[in-house]
Amino acid sequence: MFVKNAWYCAGWDKDLSLGRDGLLARRIAGESLVLYRRPDAAVVAMEDRCCHRHAPLSLGRKEGDSIRCMYHGMKFGPDGRCTEIPGMSRIPEKACVRTYPVVERDNWIWVWMGEPAKADPALICEAIGPGDPAWNLRLGYVRVDTNYRQEIANLADLSHVAWVHSQTLGGSDAWSNIKPRHELTERGIDTRYCVRRTPPPSFARHLFPEGALFDIQVHVRMSVPCNFILHFSVHEVGSATEGPTNGRLVLDTFSSQAVTPRDAHSCDYYYSWGCSRATDMPGLTDLMHEANNDAFLEDKAMLEGQYQRMRERPDAPSVDIVHDAGPGKLLWVLDRLLKAEARAIEIVPA
Amino acid sequence: MFVKNAWYCAGWDKDLSLGRDGLLARRIAGESLVLYRRPDAAVVAMEDRCCHRHAPLSLGRKEGDSIRCMYHGMKFGPDGRCTEIPGMSRIPEKACVRTYPVVERDNWIWVWMGEPAKADPALICEAIGPGDPAWNLRLGYVRVDTNYRQEIANLADLSHVAWVHSQTLGGSDAWSNIKPRHELTERGIDTRYCVRRTPPPSFARHLFPEGALFDIQVHVRMSVPCNFILHFSVHEVGSATEGPTNGRLVLDTFSSQAVTPRDAHSCDYYYSWGCSRATDMPGLTDLMHEANNDAFLEDKAMLEGQYQRMRERPDAPSVDIVHDAGPGKLLWVLDRLLKAEARAIEIVPA
Amino acid sequence: MFVKNAWYCAGWDKDLSLGRDGLLARRIAGESLVLYRRPDAAVVAMEDRCCHRHAPLSLGRKEGDSIRCMYHGMKFGPDGRCTEIPGMSRIPEKACVRTYPVVERDNWIWVWMGEPAKADPALICEAIGPGDPAWNLRLGYVRVDTNYRQEIANLADLSHVAWVHSQTLGGSDAWSNIKPRHELTERGIDTRYCVRRTPPPSFARHLFPEGALFDIQVHVRMSVPCNFILHFSVHEVGSATEGPTNGRLVLDTFSSQAVTPRDAHSCDYYYSWGCSRATDMPGLTDLMHEANNDAFLEDKAMLEGQYQRMRERPDAPSVDIVHDAGPGKLLWVLDRLLKAEARAIEIVPA
């Protein structure tokens, strides 16, 4: 169901304050976690379950670099070992809580849900964070009640922009006719294409004269499950009809996004979007942010409707179309990882 | 569970406008449908599921006599065949969506959920629609969260009027002592009786002098699943003690009703009720409509409470009483149809 | 799952008026009941299910000492026998509804869910009711969505007061270091201990000078499932370091509590709390009542969080600590009763 040896986004760095009650409860890939920041700012991720009687540690209290369960007062260090049981002098060997490797990068918090020894930060998708001085980024979040396979399939095929987002990010059928080139990477796909001679998106059409056209150069890197970056740069219409546009750059935009499955039926979707400071103008990033918030609610409505239909009749047949190439490749990578993990567990049973 | 070779009510004609977004999502007998009106006013009913990736077509858009899925833009004609896949020139053979036979009659929309070849409009229960100039009818709707067998059992035994509706449609124990004559028909029952010497119903008692009494002649035709008409005519008290009343007609009322199971646990209940224009007076049909709306919420509360108890203890025994004859006959007809369909599927496997 | 041969609390006497609509629907140990008061004030408890078609009798109407189902008008005497079926002259033998033994004591209504012949009122936990002139008691109620085993484990170990209730009933770690003496009784445990040299609880700290200390003498009697009384008496600090305090009595408080499982996932929790009139002062019992209401919501939050974690991963291991002795003994008594009932059913199959 879930790839465990993978980094999952648990939110933005701003979600974890140093405050005494700065405890963040998250559900990731079917497990309940609590995250908190130590006095030295390092982030701890633990199973959100006291080893005594399973009370949520997220209802607890931070004490120095430790967390105290507020049911019976058991205290756990940042390595998950119990260091105090009020009323007892001896701490049982087994009194500890599972911890998870954590990396903070690009203002994101990443948690490794599998074997700690395999937690290689090189597997985290490169991104641009809101702290990057070259970009003016806004942050957003939406919960989507679907299986994450549908969510990442949605994101791996932007031809849906023409339809789902016709009133926001879309506004022409140019998106229907894109010819993406998807290259397989170690854990995902790398996709490039140019949307040529397209009018401005619906949300920005009023800013331009009737008939204005642009080339949009797109570069998407996705790695399962499921972090990805979108680099959209808007150009004047160029003369090239194949390969990248050769029109002059007008606006450079960048989005970093992460889909974290909560469980089989629900995802957390984190996203940033904005313009390079070199090409931004006052109000533009905010306009784009409003449009994105609207658009991701359009996705949510479509994806939740789709998932309802899928659950009503799980064995209904489906017809493939040309735009399925991206989702197909990405889910193929995901399935390959899932199978490799299942095999590894078979060989070395837990 | 559900008879498939049957007409199910999908609502009133007024529920389907010619507007661009006039898409009606309905759940009928365990299937999800979308209905829309073509420019020539004909109604199309389709499975509410794009054949590509199962997105709901009810989140789509009408284009001429077609419907376009707004996930990836696939367009389907009124026969369910895909006629356009944006970005592709060839349409795969299998790209089509199931459609359902539809008949509009008596201002009602009827959908056939089984084999199209067997869709015989003669099987639709005769009714009087709100468009009939001889009657002054009002329309109502209530969703009831129960299995439809309980809903139709409720409707097939009007002795409950004395109790469930004591504050509205009832008001005397005359309804407890009715002796209905139920005749089996091809797909239901035909029931006649006279409620003799009964005071006016609670909702209308203030209109009459103390002690006023009437005969109410009742004729109910029910056909599974589950359309029915009720003809109540109010007469001055007559001298007959058996058979129809021979009192003078005072008020002629008519109700057409339909129960459409959504799934095993929920029904849509559509109803009209009103007076003949020959016997109506200003305000009377509205008074009756208010009382019916109240009464059907009384039914809803009772039926939902009953269903909760049934689910809590499905094997609890039950005692039969004299008033179960009508429900028993109707459910017998239903079970006969269900068994016949099950046998047919066994012989010719799908 | 549930001990059936046991008294369960169905609420306070004040919950059952003599009013015509004074029908109380309760769910107890997985069964649905209706309770009502006869004209002579005696309480009747019946299965909340008409024997005809399972309609809830709690939607019915009181008539003298009987209850009438308002679906088809069947009337049942206080012994559950049907005495009237409108429209029928003969009442079928089997037309009756199960009744349950009821005892009213200490302003509480107790219902026996098992074999009536075994309903021994001596098994009801002794309590002090709000009607007792020697005590000034307040009543409260909270629904907790957890399995009742977790609820009674919570109540059998008051070391949690130090943590869960640190802002209300707790306020010192004295509660973490209690050394309760649990004595097994026929159907529960009897627990005594002294909390020595403890500051006033958080909710009352402002009433005393800095550094004020007290001895709290605790006596708890619990019987499964699950009624219990807590007798807390507050004393000046005494010189005894073992056994009961020998300090002068300052305040005598008493709480009677009952946990009634609704089903596997939910409990009703009824409680009273207050001071002896001999030691009370104006406003004190109200202050304590407010603190208790707050505290029991703190328990609710912790218990519901714990139960969510337990359902997410039912096989997660757990580590025992010294404070588990009370809950362990109480659950041992419960399991012994559950096993005895299971054996009895095996020998004499129903």
Automatic annotation (TrEMBL), chains A, B, C:
Pfam families: Rieske (PF00355), VanA_C (PF19112). GO terms for biological process: methylation. InterPro entries: Cholesterol_7-desaturase (IPR050584), Rieske_2Fe-2S (IPR017941), Rieske_2Fe-2S_sf (IPR036922), VanA_C_cat (IPR044043). Keywords: 2Fe-2S, Iron, Iron-sulfur, Metal-binding, Methyltransferase, Oxidoreductase, Transferase. Gene3D superfamilies: Naphthalene 1,2-dioxygenase Alpha Subunit, Chain A, domain 1 (3.90.380.10), Rieske [2Fe-2S] iron-sulphur domain (2.102.10.10). Residues 7-111 form the Rieske domain. Transmembrane segments: none annotated. GO terms for molecular function: 2 iron, 2 sulfur cluster binding; metal ion binding; methyltransferase activity; vanillate monooxygenase activity. Its EC number is 1.14.13.82. It comes from the Bacteria. This is Vanillate O-demethylase oxygenase subunit. It comes from Methylibium petroleiphilum (strain ATCC BAA-1232 / LMG 22953 / PM1). The lineage of its organism: Bacteria, Pseudomonadati, Pseudomonadota, Betaproteobacteria, Burkholderiales.
